[in-house]
Amino acid sequence: MTSVEELWGELAQSRELPYGRARTAIGERLTERADALGDQDLAWSARMVLLESYSYGGEPLKRFAPFAWLLARYDAAPGEVEESDRAELLWAFKWVTVGAVSHPGVSLAQIEQGLADMRDRYTAAGEGLAPYLGCRFQVDAHVHGYQEATDAYLAWTRAPRTWLSDCQACEPTTRTEYLAAVGRHADAVREAGPVLARGGCAEQPQSAISHALEPLLRLGEPERAAAEHLRGARLMRSHHGVTAMWARHILVLARSGRLMRGLDLLEDHLGEVDAPPTPEDGMWLAAAGARLLRGLADSGQGDLPVEAGQESVAQLGDRLAGTALDLAGRFDARNGTGAVGARVRDWLDAEPLPDLPLDRVTTRRAAPPRPAAATRTAPGDRPFVNPSVAAPSPGPAVTGAGTSGGPTAAEVADRFERSRVTQVR
């Protein structure tokens, strides 16, 4: 029989493994063994490892269950929890609270209650509220749109950092995301610069790269944008749960006329539309794919077979547009606003960007002839080349799209609710 000491050793070794199913499976097995042995310390540590594995290993929905156990254990006997364990729990609030936004089955009231609980627990622990304010901004940006979330953004960025704030690479990336979304492209590139140069954590620099591509192109740095695209793609291939990052790359490829490169990446990740880490991730991939495929159809490639010949470019483009709009409608119904739908339509109708110079990159299919370039100037931007890629029209709504094999909305909401109110028995 394996001793408790051996289980602790396995747990320590698992922390050295890359994120993915193998690491997660070890955490799940050790959690079961700790519960069977009644070892509360081991059960706590195993669940913290499991929570991290779910968050970074492409299974974020599953993190509600270990978080519920950890929160309930702390509430039942706070004096028995070590200071380092308490800090880990407060850190995990950021994953769970903001993560709930990506599931339309979790009600806005539940999300707001989770935020209030986070704020109250940070206050009771004597911790600064910058991490809470960062989560507040991210929720507001999702529900109301980036421009409407400016006050929340300023409240967060003006608050002093604390030791529970996101790392020195992830916080600039969130700021880059906001600045790019509101059209402050030069500020976005400046904010992303140190992260692009040095990285910083498991998510960086690949997340920062995905947000910086459009600003780089708009500022007249196409060679740098191309190099960052290739570097980001190389980094993302070794990570799980980065569907939304792939979506941002595919959208830039669609808008810059690099359609065959975009089609290669879309085919590689098409299964993530129906089985994404979160419904929101699947929605953005569907929207980016629809924008790409409409460009291909408008270049005369509408009959080109994709997805192992099961659909044509035109057929798949219509399906993905419908998927994106259907999911956006579910988020907007949950949020009581139209912000998500408006942003999805912005992706579907996104204007062209300057060319991304990737001529040396081999694609599976030959690229169609590039149309004659036309010069067009957008307000606030320098002139750029219009590759004559038309914006797609929305396709038909697909009921239930993006949820194949996944939990129902009620199940997601129930898991989140248990993560707040479950008590140790």
Can you walk through the features of this model?
It is a single chain. This protein has 425 residues and is mainly α. The protein is 63% helix and 2% strand. It has 19 helices and 4 strands. The strands form 2 sheets. A two-stranded antiparallel sheet has the order 1-2. A two-stranded antiparallel sheet has the order 3-4. A hairpin with a 7-residue loop joins strand 3 and strand 4. The longest helix is centred in the last third of the chain and has 23 residues. The protein is globular. The C terminus is likely disordered.
Secondary-structure map with pairings?
Layout: H1 4-14, H2 21-37, H3 40-56, H4 64-76, H5 83-99, H6 108-124, H7 130-144, H8 150-158, H9 170-181, H10 185-198, H11 206-218, H12 222-236, H13 243-255, H14 259-269, H15 271-274, H16 279-301, E1 305-306, E2 311-312, H17 313-335, H18 339-348, E3 374-376, E4 384-386, H19 409-421
Helix content: 55-70%
Which parts are unreliable, with pLDDT below 50 for 5 consecutive residues or more? 371-405, 421-425
Strand content: under 5%
Structural class: mainly alpha
Supply the number of helical segments.
Answer: 19
Query: What is the string of helix and strand elements?
Result: HHHHHHHHHHHHHHHHEEHHEEH
The strand count comes to: 4
Strand arrangement, largest sheet?
A: 1-2
Task: Round the Cα radius of gyration to an integer and report it.
Answer: 22 Å
Question: What form results from the Cα inertia axes?
Answer: globular
Question: How far is it from the N-terminal to the C-terminal residue, by CA?
Answer: 28 Å
Q: What is the average of the pLDDT values?
A: 88
Main sheet properties: 2 strands, antiparallel
